[in-house]
Each structure stands twice: as structure tokens, then as C-alpha cells.
Amino acid sequence: MRKTKSLSFSFLAITCFFLLHSQSIIQALEHIATSEYEALGLATEPKRETLEIIIGGGGGGSAPAPSPESSCPPPPPPPCPPTLSRLDRARRVLLKFKSNIYDPTGYTSNWNENTDTCNFHGILCGIFPNTNDRAVAGLDFNQKKFQGKNCDTIPLKGILDQIEELTFFHVNSNSFYGSIPKEITNYKYFYELDLSNNKLVGEFPKEVLDSKQLVFLDLRFNQLTGSVPSQLFKKDLDVIFINNNKFSQCLPENFGSTPARYLTFAHNNFVGEIPRSIGNANKTLTEVLFLGNKFEGCLPYEIGYLKKATVFDVSQNSLTGPIPASFGCLEKIQFLNLAHNKFYGTVPESVCVLSGIKNNGNLSLAGNYFTKLEPACWSLLKSKILDVSNNCIPGLPNQRSKQECYEFQCKIKPCSNPQSLSYVPCKPHWGNKQNNAPASQEMATEPVTYKSLNPHRLRP
Length: 460
Ligand SMILES: *[C@@H]1O[C@H](CO)[C@@H](O)[C@H](O)[C@H]1NC(C)=O
Ligand SMILES: *[C@@H]1O[C@H](CO)[C@@H](O)[C@H](O)[C@H]1NC(C)=O
Known about the structure:
Elements: H1 2-21, H2 25-40, H3 49-55, H4 86-99, E1 101-102, E2 123-127, E3 134-140, E4 147-148, E5 154-155, E6 168-170, E7 176-177, E8 192-194, E9 201-202, E10 216-218, E11 223-226, E12 239-241, E13 246-249, E14 262-264, E15 269-272, E16 287-289, E17 294-298, E18 311-313, E19 318-321, E20 335-337, E21 342-347, H5 349-352, H6 355-358, E22 362-364, E23 369-373, H7 375-382, E24 386-387, H8 402-411, H9 440-444
Parallel strand pairs: 3-6, 5-7, 6-8, 8-10, 9-11, 10-12, 11-13, 12-14, 13-15, 14-16, 15-17, 16-18, 17-19, 18-20, 19-21, 20-22, 21-23, 22-24
Antiparallel strand pairs: 1-4, 2-3
The structure holds 2-acetamido-2-deoxy-beta-D-glucopyranose (2 copies).
């Protein structure tokens, strides 16, 4: 039994890793919790009282009362604290944590003397690798609305810094506050940190940059400010969700070194150009949400290298220039959203014939200054896949006024490298018969990252 469980723990670790690195993150996001439990066999696990009796810690068991008859008290016991098991130590931390929070839904009500630590709500146990020790492998307090005792916030210190066996810490939608304890950088198997929709303030938490095993980082919906450090993009992260904060400044030049598949940077205050290095992420980058920032300048042609990208959304920024011809190389793209910027020129044929877009995709160019559609684009318009409302296209309804379009034309600043915008780094797709075949497989995948624009957890 111990052997199996020990294997299970490693399996959990590997499962996390594998799931997050698998193609289908949506499955990973949906199934990770259950498969962790399945992996640990908790559903079918027989009762564990035998082990648990030994532990019984955290209860503050009372010392034996001195016998009234004895005239002289027994000598005090040697001041040697008993060594606590991993589980016992975590139990103490959890009970102390419970005593310091307001738990409006009573989620922690079974955290008491009569309950095995591993049966506490929100606790996942496993056997710590290379030992026979049961340990708390993960905490899941997603959407439990925990607060401090006085309707205030809860420090991360006191919980996240106290359980070195953690593989994940999922606390979406609570009131956690304060710096991320640097202890996490020494945790050997810490894979997932979800602090989304809490009360984090201040600069990007540098501690996560030193956490060696992290693959999943979710800091969405906090109040983080300042720049995003370049080291973030060197880390072997699969998912970076930092949308709906107050990050500002430019993205670092090495942005494209990230091996992440899912990047949501939406609804911050990022400025400057989208770094040309983005093309270097062509082996992995699948969904990119940049919407709702202050990005400016022209789109770099290197975006066309992103042959795995299914979602690219830069809507609601201050970007300008024409659509680079390289966009015709985005062979997997389904959702391309450039709406509400200052793009202009002709909408290229090569983009309108991309199979992912034609087959139930979405090409949103509303609220720009485009002046012309090439023929294939007109059929997308008819099938309502393409939205070009509020542009400058003669003969179409819902366009900007002539005056507005004229004034814009007079103010156009050319892109810094205009020749690059006609560069096509792939074989063009035009006239490719395969494009007429329904891309049924591609249609099946639903975008993942748009769900990150809702503050609540991504996992069910
Ligand atoms: C990936 O992008 C780089 C430039 O960023 C480019 O040199 C390389 O050819 C691309 N690889 C593929 C397979 O498209
Ligand atoms: C396309 O995307 C835009 C922007 O997200 C959305 O408003 C619109 O409803 C979508 N259109 C279709 C047909 O799905």
C-alpha cells in the first residue's frame, strides 16, 4: 500500500506536469483536480485511522493533571520537543490558519480533532517522494471567500510558507494579501500557483521567478503594478495568466523566449510595441490575449511565425499600420481580433482564406480605419465571420464618416519597417485546395484563455 501511494505522489507530480504540457490545456484545466484525486486513489482509499491515531497533532492535547495526593511534583519532562511528522506539522499549520480566518461558507468546519488531516475539506494528501511519509500535497480553497477575522485580508505568510510538501496552491477568489513567501522557491515539487482574484498589491512577485518547478502561474484579477520582469519569460511556464491587474510599461525584449502556450495579459496598462521576439514562441504559443492595453506601433511581421496560434486578440489598444502579409501564415488561427485600434489599409485576401477563420472562426476588425476588402473577405462578411463595422470601407453600412476617415488619413505615421509588412515567411495559402475542406478538428477546440477574463476559477 505504501509503495503504491508513494508512486501515486510522483504520479501526481508527473500528472500535473504532463497535463499542463499536453496539447489540450482545456482538458487539463478541467480534469486536473479529479485526476489528482484519482491518481492518489483517494476515492477508493480504505480508512486510514490506523495511521491517523499516531498523529492526532494540532489538538493541543492536555498534559496529565498532577495527582492531588503526591506531595512533591514529578520532575518536569526533559524539554525535548517530539519530532513531528510532515502531516502533523501541516495539520498544526492548517488549524492555526483556520483560527485566523473568517470562513463564510463553513468550508473548514470539518477541520477538527475528529478528522484525519487528509479528509479536511480542500486538502489533498500524498506520500512524499522517497519517503513513507504522508503529506499535504495541495490546497484548494478556490472560491471559498476566506477573509481575515476582521473583514480584512489574509497574509500568505502563515500558510503558503509553512507546508514545504505542496505541489499546488489554488486559492482563487479569496482575500489573500501580502508578498509571496520566498520559502516556495525551496519547495521541491511546487507546480501550480493560483492566486487569482485576491488582494495582491505591489510589484510583480519576484519569488515566483525563483520557484524552480512552477508550470502554472495565475495572478489574474489582483492589483499588481509596475513592469513584468524579463526573467518571467525564461521560466518553463506553460500558462501565464496575469490579466486584469495594473501592470504597465513595455513588455521585455525577450518576451518571445517563453515556452508558454497560454498568455493572457489583457486589461492591464502595457504600452509600447509588441516585441518582435514574439515569433520565437512559434513552437508553443497557442493563445495570446493582449486586449485592453495601450500597446502602440505596428504589428511585427514575426507574428506570422506563430503557426500554432489559434487565438490572437489585440483588440482595444492603440495599434496601427496595415495587417502584415505574414498573417496569411497563421495556419491554425481561428479567432483573430484586431478590433478597436487604428489599423488601416486593405484587409488581405490571405487572411480571409485561412481555414480556421473560414470554418466558424471569427475575424473582428471593427472600429479601425480599413479602406478596402479583397474578394475572399466579402464572403466572410456575408457569413458574419468578419466584422468590419465602423471602418472606412466605401459602400458598406455602419462606417465612419468621410470626415473622420479623411482626418485619419492625414495623420498616418508610417511603420518603422514598412518593407517587412509585405514579407510572407511561409508558402501562401491561396488556391490551396485543402482550405476548402472543413477543418472539423480545429473547430472542435474552444478557446481556453477567454475564460480567464472572468475572475472566477478556470477549473470547475
Ligand atoms: C520560428 O520563428 C523564427 C523567428 O522568430 C524563425 O526563424 C523560424 O523559422 C520559425 N520556425 C518555424 C518552424 O516557423
Ligand atoms: C467575434 O468576436 C467578437 C469579439 O470577441 C464578438 O463580439 C462577436 O460576437 C464574435 N462573433 C461571432 C460570430 O462569434
